[in-house]
């Protein structure tokens, strides 16, 4: 962002009623983004409904590509198919389009950006991909550790909140937990199995190699964002019965020797990281604390017993609706001011 006041921009949020879209409205306000006009778009189902926002009362408009074309910045929070159909036309019309789906993340011509790590990848792109939520949270910590010690191999185990599956995922957790406690039948439609008092080691579809698509996204996207095309990274992604904020246990093997003290020094200066590492006093990253925060909490920093002085274990926790989606998208928009 330049030091002189940037000119206000016309901003459209498409998918404004969803888990991510609603957060985008708040994040624009919390970061004092210079908004000249805010357009909120969703499906026909929501059209005409009014919503209170920090920018005043707004009427939801049914998405129509022609109605969105005049905006300077378009934040897309719908599906991959929707993005494939509409994002190129909106970008060609001159808007900066920031897409939250996976539609363009693996396209070599589309930058995949976490501003703390690879802001320069923006260039003069008009279409930008926002990473998968788990990846965005992980790389905020992995990026500075890679710069300082070099990443050789990474193993990630995730504990992902129900809102990662959208507003309906949170609603299913709430309703089915109530049903379970009241002795009523517990059914599931968003998740493959009941989520209350359970955890599900499947997020997205299984691939031929036995990993899920969510797990492979973490591998593919971390490589692209960190610029390490051959990084060995294995992920196991698990859905757990929390509302929001994803947690991740991350083990790294480094190229240069690393110690917990040296890692703490690096992470305490890293943008977007909140060092949360005082285990003796019960201070470590947790979803309840990370919820609503912009920073990613990093703690439980210790030498990994397998990799010794070239290994580190960390636990990270970040609000995936913020750093994993809405905040990261707005930060990308800020790069263009
Ligand atoms: N949830 C997360 O943690 C997370 C994190 C990173 C990325 N993402 C990605 O962000 C995107 C949105 O996810 P979400 O979790 O916010 O989903 P969601 O809660 O299910 O919301 C979906 C939004 O899309 C709108 N929509 C659906 N069909 C539409 C259409 N034909 N035209 C215009 N709007 C339409 C919905 O509007 P109506 O209410 O009118 O149906 C709603 O606003 C997805 O690509 C997702 O993979 C999600």
What does this entry look like structurally?
This protein has 337 residues and is an alpha/beta fold. It folds into two domains: 9-103, 3-Layer(aba) Sandwich (Rossmann fold), CATH 3.40.50.720; 135-320, Dihydrodipicolinate Reductase, domain 2 (2-Layer Sandwich). The chain is 31% helix and 23% strand. It contains ten helices and 14 strands. It has helices at residues 19-30, 65-68, 80-92, 115-118, 133-149, 167-181, 213-226, 260-268, 287-290, 322-335; strands at residues 9-14, 35-42, 50-53, 56-59, 61-62, 73-76, 96-99, 127-129, 151-159, 232-236, 246-254, 273-275, 296-303, 311-318. The strands form three sheets. Strands 5-2-1-6-7-8 form a six-stranded parallel sheet, sandwiched between helices. A six-stranded mixed sheet has the order 10-9-11-14-13-12. A hairpin with a 7-residue loop joins strand 13 (296-303) and strand 14 (311-318). Helix 5 (133-149) crosses helix 10. It is globular and about 60 Å long. Bound molecules: NADP nicotinamide-adenine-dinucleotide phosphate (NAP).
Short description:
The chain is an alpha/beta fold. It contains 10 helices and 14 strands.
Write the layout of secondary structure elements.
Elements: E1 9-14, H1 19-30, E2 35-42, E3 50-53, E4 56-59, E5 61-62, H2 65-68, E6 73-76, H3 80-92, E7 96-99, H4 115-118, E8 127-129, H5 133-149, E9 151-159, H6 167-181, H7 213-226, E10 232-236, E11 246-254, H8 260-268, E12 273-275, H9 287-290, E13 296-303, E14 311-318, H10 322-335
Parallel strand pairs: 1-2, 1-6, 2-5, 6-7, 7-8, 9-10, 12-13
Antiparallel strand pairs: 3-4, 9-11, 11-14, 13-14
Helix pairs in contact: 1-10, 5-7, 5-10
Bound molecules: NADP nicotinamide-adenine-dinucleotide phosphate.
NADP nicotinamide-adenine-dinucleotide phosphate (NAP) is lined by residues 14-21, 42-43, 45-46, 63, 77-79, 82, 100-101, 133, 163-164, 166-168, 320-321, 324-325.
């Amino acid at each position: 962002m330049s030091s002189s006041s940037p000119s206000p921009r016309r901003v459209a949020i498409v998918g404004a009623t969803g888990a991510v879209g609603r957060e985008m409205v708040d994040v624009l306000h919390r970061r004092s983004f210079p908004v000249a006009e805010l357009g909120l778009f969703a499906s026909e189902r929501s059209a005409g409904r009014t919503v209170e926002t920090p920018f005043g009362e707004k009427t939801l408009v049914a998405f129509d590509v022609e109605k969105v074309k005049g905006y300077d910045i378009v934040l897309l929070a719908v599906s991959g198919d929707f993005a494939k159909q509409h994002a190129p036309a909106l970008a060609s019309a001159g808007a900066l389009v920031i897409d939250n789906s996976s539609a363009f993340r693996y396209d070599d011509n589309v930058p995949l950006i976490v501003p703390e790590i690879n802001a320069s990848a923006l260039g003069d792109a008009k279409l930008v991909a926002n990473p998968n939520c788990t990846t965005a949270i992980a790389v905020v910590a992995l990026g500075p550790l890679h710069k300082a010690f070099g990443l050789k191999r990474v193993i990630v185990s995730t504990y992902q909140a129900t809102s990662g599956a959208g507003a309906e995922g949170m609603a299913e957790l709430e309703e089915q937990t109530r049903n379970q406690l009241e002795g009523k039948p517990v059914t599931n439609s968003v998740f493959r199995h009941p989520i209350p008092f359970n955890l599900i080691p499947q997020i997205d579809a299984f691939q031929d190699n036995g990993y899920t698509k969510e797990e492979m996204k973490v591998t593919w996207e971390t490589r692209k964002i960190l610029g390490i095309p051959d990084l060995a990274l294995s992920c196991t992604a698990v859905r757990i019965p929390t509302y929001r904020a994803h947690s991740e246990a991350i083990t790294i093997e480094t190229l240069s020797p690393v110690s917990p003290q040296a890692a703490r020094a690096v992470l305490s200066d890293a943008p977007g990281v909140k060092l949360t590492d005082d285990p003796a006093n019960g201070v470590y990253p947790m979803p309840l604390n990370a919820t609503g925060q912009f920073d990613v909490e990093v703690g439980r920093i210790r030498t990994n017993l397998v990799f010794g002085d070239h290994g580190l274990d960390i636990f990270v926790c970040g609000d995936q609706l913020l750093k994993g989606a809405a905040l990261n998208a707005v930060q990308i928009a800020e790069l263009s001011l």
